[in-house]
Each structure stands twice: as C-alpha cells, then as structure tokens.
C-alpha cells in the first residue's frame, strides 16, 4: 500500500517534471555546453575551450557592461518600488469600495493590452528633439532650447523600464497588502502609533514578501532585456542582453552562450541573496 | 514594352523546350512539370520583391518563394541551413564568408545568355578599361572559382561564377540641406563638431566600419593600406577616433534598421548620417528635403547576386538557370533601376524603362517629366537631377566595397566595445 502511494506520487509529479526537464533543464545544459565550444564566422567547432570565458573575464567591456546592467536594474528597481508601493497602498487602504478597487486595478493594466515594443517606441516621438515634451516646455517658456537628454539617453532607457515594469511591482504588493489583517492596523492606532509609524512598523514588514516577488520580476526583466536599451538609447548604450544579441547576430553562438551563462549565474546569485532576507514561500 | 516582354518569354520558353527536348524524351511532359517546380529564394529586402515572384510565375511558369531577411540572418542561413533554400540572394561580402562552407554551387557561365553584357565591375573589376579598382571585397575578387567544387576564388574570369550579379549601388551620407544650410563635400563632416548631437552612423559592424574608415581617411587622420582589410592597428586607431567623438556627444543615435534611419532623418533628430538610397526616397516622399550627398572622397559601394544551392540538381537546376537568364533579360533590372539601384546588365533594362526614366536614373540627365517608383510614388519632379549624376560618375568614383576582413572577429569585438563605451 505504502509503495503504491509512493508510485502514485511520482506519477503525479511526472508531467511537470518532464516539461521542466525538456523545456528548462535541457536547454540550459545545452547553453552551458555550447559556451565551451569555439566558433569561426561560418562554423561552430565542438571543443572544450575556456577561450570564451577567458575573453569575457579579460575584457574591461564586460565589467563596464555588467555595471551598466546593474545600474539600470538598481535605478529601475528603486523607482518601480516607490511608485508601485504607493499605488498599491492607495488601492489597498484608501479605496474602500471593492468595485472601485477592482476598476482602478484594471485601469492600471490597460497599457498592457498593447505590445511591449509599441509602449516603448511611443515614447520616441514624445521625447524627441521636436517632440511633444520639448515643444510643450518651450511653449510654456520653461526652456529656450530643446532638451537633448530626454531621448537616446540613460534617462529615456530608465523611463521606459519604469513605464514597462511598474505593474509587476504593483500586483504582488497589492496582493500582499490585501491579505493584511485590518485589525492589526486598528491595533496600531489604538496603541498610539502615528500613520507613518504604522506604515513603517506594520505595513512594510507585512508587505515584504510582495515587495520581494515584485523585486525579482523587475530585476530579472531589466537584467535580461536588450530591446529597450537598444531603442531608447539609440543603440548608444549597452547592457548584457545587447552583448548577447550582438554575438548572435554575428554567428558567435559560443561566445553568446558564455555571456548568457555568466548573466544567468549573476541573476541567480542576486535572487539567492534577496531570498535570504525574505521567505516568499510564506506568501505562496 | 509588353510586346518586348512577350518576345522574351516566347524566346525563353522556346529555348527551354529545346533544351528539354534534347535531355528528355517527352518535352511536353516537361512543360507540364515546370508548373509544379517551386524555387525557394531568400535574401535581403532590397531585391526580394513579391512583384518579381509574380512576374516569374507569369513569364516562366514556375513558382518562386521569397523570404526577406536582414543581412546577418541571410549570412547565418546561407552558412548553416543549405537545405532551406534553392537560390540565395546575397551580397558579395557575404559570399566571401559563405562560399568556403561549400553550400553553394558555381554556375556555368556558358549557360548565361547575357554574360557578355554584364558590367565590367563584376568581371574584371573595371567599369571602364582605365578605371581603378576600389578597395574592399570588390565583386570580381569573389565572383569566380577555378573549377566546380573549389572553395577558393579565382584571380581572373573563369567559366565558373559564384554569384550572378543582380543589383548594386553606391552609398554615401544622407543630409538634411534645410537644416545644414551649407554645402557638404567630405566624409569628414560626419565628425564635424558643428553637428554635435545631430549625427548618426549605422550599427551594423561590417558596414559601419567602412563608413568610419571613409571618415577617418577624409579627416587625414589615418592612411589605410586597404580599408576593406584593415590591420589591428588600423582598427584600433579608427575606433579611438570614433570613441572620442561618441563620448563628446557627436552622435544622436545609431541605427540598425532601414525604418530607424528614415525616422531619425525625417524627425530632424539627425541632420547627417550614413544612409541607404531607398531611405532617402522614403524621407523625400514625406515632403522633407533630403539629399544623398556625393562626396569628394567617393562612395562606399555594395553589390548583390544570386547563388545556387549545392543541393539543386536536375529539373530544378534547369529552372534556376532559366530564372537567372530571365533575371538578366531586363524586366527586373528596369524595376530595380526605377528605384535607384543599378542592374548588372543595364542595356537590357533600358528596354523596360521610358526615355525619361533612363535619362534620370542612368544618364544623370534632368528629368523631363515626373519620376515615379514602380509602386507609383513620386520620387522626383521634372527638372530635377539625380544626386551624384550618371552611372559612370557614381559607380566610377567608388572608393571602397563592402567587405569582410581577415581581422573580422577582432573588429566585431572592438565594435561591441565602441557601442558600450
């Protein structure tokens, strides 16, 4: 009987395990293997060579690009967290009627009904030298010359990231906030805590798992991105994703695979560190 | 025009039938079978036109399937997936990369009817007997192989051609004369501080490096042995100049796709940049003044051609030869030349163009009437002259061909560095 149950358990887990094995584990193993191969322009040579990694770690560009990637990730994270937390807080604690709450929440998702790329590219005519932002500012008399840094700069890259990914912060934070027992907040007030104290000592600690899930979403999305950086910086800045896409475009698959492996490890380490602070399983 | 087309068609059909009659016992059967033949062609967007496929069906009877890709993907596909195509429409520098893989088969020149009429650039490298051969991967250097099956190129014309030239042009910088207000004469202007924050270059390393070299040479900073095959020192020096300019904010953006270059120019973000001929046309068609500026140092040129897959044989191979002969017989050439490109056999294309069109596009004469593209857009008004003038003037002042260097991998890494700097 016991043996039977054991068998049944394996059987039930099998479909998911198989799917993960074929579509997640195997591709990653392939990437790792290919990262040790060598390539010329038109052929890939199966070999075991550390050359790709040697080049990667030996080049100052790699460090610069990883640094830029972290910079984008950190700034985007801070901004999406500030905006996401505020929006979620407002939705969860200031809107009393559930209908309005749902309506406003759906409102947040409306931009996501269009494609990622469209949302990003629509910033370009808006921020351009002769774009709406500049002409409005000039008409208002605030500036005399168009602001050049609005487009094709780190500013526009981060603006697009924040625009694209804030919702990934709002949703998990809102979700955790809705689960906070309201009597805890009443208790805080009854004990004489100010609004700010309640926020810092009650709401923020209880929202941590949501913040963490949002953080993981935003960090992985920003660190893995290449198209936003390319379009919004006018190809003038690079992040790790662009290094990989350039390599692929030039048929340097092994080199691209090596960069991908390093990026994967970096992201895993970051997430590993984050998970030491908060137990998100409590949330799930 | 239609009459000529019909004669041509009849001629080819007749020729095909005659060829078939000698090879097959039942030529009628062959005529039936050709309808079932499908040739799969892939290449860059410039010449992969659906209109061509439609015309092939009409004139030759078989089906031509077109796939348009960007030049990186084209190289990738030609090098790694030989069974996925029958006809590769690639650039000559791509041929230099792909030919050694053995995925393409050489063509028997004696089966090419108009071979003698092909422009000299593709045969001995000379437009006229006394013209100089430009630097870079000049088409004739990778145009022939010594014998079928060879993976190295021949130094002179042989009976075995790698690619049949189809389309080529001379590229230069595009400018917005209304925003610059003074004549531009040199490639060096791209890095002129006057245009700080208003210049752009294309982010495709193999072509971008050429434009960079033209600029550095024009500035008098670097003397290249061969711009198409730089040494590491030359590559380093070139990138040093451009990295400095980039950090000083010279560039507004880099572009990778055709549309990006059009938008940068049309919106006024950029007033001077490397550009492709049809992109200029696209900007102009929005009513914005834009010039494909001839420069005193000359043009950076490129050329494309059709190659046959190694796996083509039998009836499909015959159909492919028929297609190539049809391609050079004028209709396609006329179609491409009316967009501002050049045909490998200009004299056959002439029959498919009006006198006004031929004068404007090829001879550099003033247009006597409105010039329209094959799709009907107005490209020039009566009285206008083509930027750069006639065929001989434009193709005669080519300084460099698009190329792939021996130090390509090193260059690509430096390019990545440049973008990240």
Automatic annotation (TrEMBL), chain A:
TM ranges: 7-37, 72-92, 104-126, 149-174, 253-278
Main location: membrane
Domain (ABC transmembrane type-1) ranges: 66-274
UniProt superkingdom: Bacteria
Membrane topology of the entry: Multi-pass membrane protein
GO biological process, one term: transmembrane transport
Key words, A-Z: Cell membrane, Membrane, Transmembrane, Transmembrane helix, Transport
Localization (cell): Cell membrane
GO CC term (a single one): plasma membrane
Protein family: Belongs to the binding-protein-dependent transport system permease family. CysTW subfamily.
Protein name as annotated: ABC transporter permease
UniProtKB/TrEMBL annotation, chain B:
Taxonomy, superkingdom: Bacteria
UniProt entry keywords in alphabetical sequence: Signal
Gene3D superfamilies, sorted: Periplasmic binding protein-like II (3.40.190.10)
Record-linked Pfam families: SBP_bac_8
Span of the signal peptide: 1-31
PROSITE patterns in the cross-refs: TAT (PS51318)
Entry-linked InterPro entries: SBP, TAT_signal
Matches recorded under PANTHER family: SPERMIDINE/PUTRESCINE-BINDING PERIPLASMIC PROTEIN (PTHR30222), SPERMIDINE_PUTRESCINE-BINDING PERIPLASMIC PROTEIN (PTHR30222:SF17)
The name this protein goes by in its record: ABC transporter substrate-binding protein
């Amino acid at each position: 009987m016991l043996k039977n149950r054991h068998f049944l358990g394996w059987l039930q887990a099998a479909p998911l395990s198989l799917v993960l094995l074929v579509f997640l584990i195997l591709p990653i193993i392939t990437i790792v293997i290919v990262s040790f191969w060598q390539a010329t322009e038109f052929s890939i040579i199966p070999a075991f060579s550390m050359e790709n990694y040697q080049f990667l770690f030996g080049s100052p560009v790699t460090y610069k690009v990883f640094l830029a990637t972290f910079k984008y990730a950190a700034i985007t994270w801070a901004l999406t967290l500030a905006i996401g937390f505020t929006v979620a807080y407002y939705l969860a604690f200031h809107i009393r009627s559930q209908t309005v709450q749902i309506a406003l929440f759906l409102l947040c998702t409306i931009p996501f009904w269009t494609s990622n790329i469209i949302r990003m590219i629509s910033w370009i005519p808006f921020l351009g030298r002769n774009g709406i932002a500049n002409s409005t500012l000039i008409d208002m008399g605030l500036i005399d010359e168009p602001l050049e840094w609005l487009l094709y700069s780190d500013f526009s890259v981060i603006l697009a990231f924040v625009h694209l990914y804030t919702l990934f912060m709002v949703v998990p934070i809102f979700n955790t906030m809705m689960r906070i027992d309201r009597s805890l907040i009443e208790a805080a007030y009854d004990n004489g805590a100010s609004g700010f104290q309640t926020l810092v000592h009650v709401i923020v600690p209880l929202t941590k798992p949501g913040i963490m899930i949002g953080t993981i979403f935003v960090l992985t999305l920003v660190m893995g991105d290449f198209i936003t950086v390319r379009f919004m910086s006018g190809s003038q800045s690079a992040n790790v994703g662009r290094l990989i896409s350039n390599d692929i475009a030039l048929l340097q698959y092994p080199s691209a695979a090596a960069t991908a492996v390093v990026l994967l490890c970096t992201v895993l380490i970051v997430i590993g560190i984050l998970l030491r602070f908060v137990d998100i399983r409590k949330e799930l | 025009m239609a009459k000529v087309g019909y004669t041509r068609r009849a001629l080819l059909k007749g020729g095909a039938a005659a060829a078939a009659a000698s090879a097959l016992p039942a030529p009628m059967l062959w005529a039936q079978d050709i309808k079932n033949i499908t040739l799969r062609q892939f290449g860059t967007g410039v010449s992969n036109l659906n209109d061509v496929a439609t015309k092939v069906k009409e004139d030759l009877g078989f089906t031509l399937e077109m796939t348009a890709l960007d030049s990186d993907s084209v190289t990738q596909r030609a090098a790694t997936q030989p069974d996925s195509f029958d006809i590769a429409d690639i650039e000559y520098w791509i041929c230099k990369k792909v030919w050694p893989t053995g995925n393409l088969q050489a063509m028997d020149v004696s089966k090419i009817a108009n071979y003698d009429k092909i422009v000299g650039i593709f045969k001995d490298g000379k437009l006229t007997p006394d013209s100089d051969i430009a630097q870079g991967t000049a088409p004739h250097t990778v145009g022939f192989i010594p014998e079928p099956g060879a993976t190295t190129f021949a130094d002179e014309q042989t009976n075995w051609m790698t690619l049949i030239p189809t389309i080529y042009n001379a590229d230069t910088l595009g400018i917005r004369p209304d925003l610059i207000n003074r004549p531009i004469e040199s490639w060096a202007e791209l890095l002129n501080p006057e245009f700080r924050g208003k210049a752009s270059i294309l982010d495709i390393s193999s072509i971008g490096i050429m434009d960079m070299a033209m600029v550095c040479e024009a500035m008098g900073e670097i003397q290249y042995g061969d711009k198409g095959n730089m040494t590491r020192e030359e590559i380093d020096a070139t990138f040093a100049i451009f990295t400095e300019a980039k950090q000083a904010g010279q560039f507004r953006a880099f572009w990778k796709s055709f549309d990006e270059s059009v938008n940068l120019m049309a919106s006024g973000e950029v007033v001077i940049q490397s550009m492709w001929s049809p992109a200029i046309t696209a900007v102009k068609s929005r009513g914005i003044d834009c010039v494909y500026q001839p420069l005193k140092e000359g043009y950076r040129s490129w050329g494309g051609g059709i190659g046959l897959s190694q796996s083509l044989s039998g009836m499909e191979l015959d159909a492919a030869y028929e297609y190539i002969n049809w391609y050079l017989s004028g209709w396609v050439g006329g179609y491409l030349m009316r967009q501002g490109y050049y045909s490998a056999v200009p004299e056959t294309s002439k029959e498919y163009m009006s006198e006004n069109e031929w004068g404007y596009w090829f001879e550099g004469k003033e247009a006597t009437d409105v010039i329209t593209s094959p799709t009907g857009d107005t490209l020039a008004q009566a009285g206008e002259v083509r930027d750069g003038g006639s065929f001989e003037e434009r193709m005669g002042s080519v300084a460099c061909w698009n190329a792939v260097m021996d130090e390509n991998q090193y260059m690509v890494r430096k390019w990545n560095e440049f973008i990240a700097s």
